[in-house]
Structures are given as C-alpha cells and as structure tokens.
Design goal:
The chain has a five-stranded mixed sheet with strand order 1-3-4-2-5. Strand 3 and strand 4 form a beta hairpin. It is globular. The protein is α+β, with helices and mostly antiparallel strands and about 110 residues long.
C-alpha cells in the first residue's frame, strides 16, 4: 500500500478501503479526525509529528472520506515497535481525545 504513497498527498478513500489495503505483514497506526465535530484538520502541515515521521523514514498517507466527513492519517510502522511509536507520535501535537487504531503485523510462520 505505501510504496505508491511516498508523496504524502491526501487522497479520497474510505476507512473500509484503508483496512482492505493494509499489508498484514506490516504494522500501522491510523489516526481518525471527525470533521463533523470541528472545522479544522488536526493533520495540518504544521503538525510537529511530521518531522518525527520524516526523520524516522516512516511511510504515511492522509486519507479523506468525503461521505462521512472524516480524515485519517495512516502511518506504517515497524512490527514490534507499535506501542513505542504510538506513544512518541501522540506526544507530538495530537489532541488528547484523538481516536486511533493500532494494527499489528501478523506473525510470520
């Protein structure tokens, strides 16, 4: 999913599309913002978390779901470092009530 998304531009898709396109061998953090509850994006370009993501060579993509007026920030992370990465990213400017989903990689046989 993320090889084609290195440009970090926002695309219009749905949450179902995100879940369908996650690589089961990778881990992901998906942040959700409900634009029905506020008029602004919490994923603005000034978010300090982007610098952390760039420095760590993380792949990420912003997704906008126009049907439900929600936006998502999907970050691909290294398997086994999900909780550590989540803690660091949240500490870089997300509101305390931000909704997120953590998808852990399936274990290889």
């Amino acid at each position: 999913m993320f090889n084609e998304f290195s440009d970090h531009k926002t695309i219009k898709k749905s949450f179902a599309w995100i879940k369908k396109n996650l690589d089961p061998l990778q881990s992901y953090i998906v942040f959700e913002n409900d634009l029905n509850k506020q008029d602004y994006s919490i994923f603005s370009e000034s978010l300090i978390a982007y610098q952390y993501l760039k420095n760590g060579n993380y792949a990420w993509k912003k997704i906008y779901d126009s049907k439900y007026s929600k936006e998502y920030l999907v970050i691909q992370i290294e398997p086994g470092k999900e909780d550590e990465t989540l803690g660091r990213v949240i500490g870089y400017g997300f509101p305390a009530d931000t909704v997120y989903y953590l998808y852990k990689a399936e274990k290889k046989l």
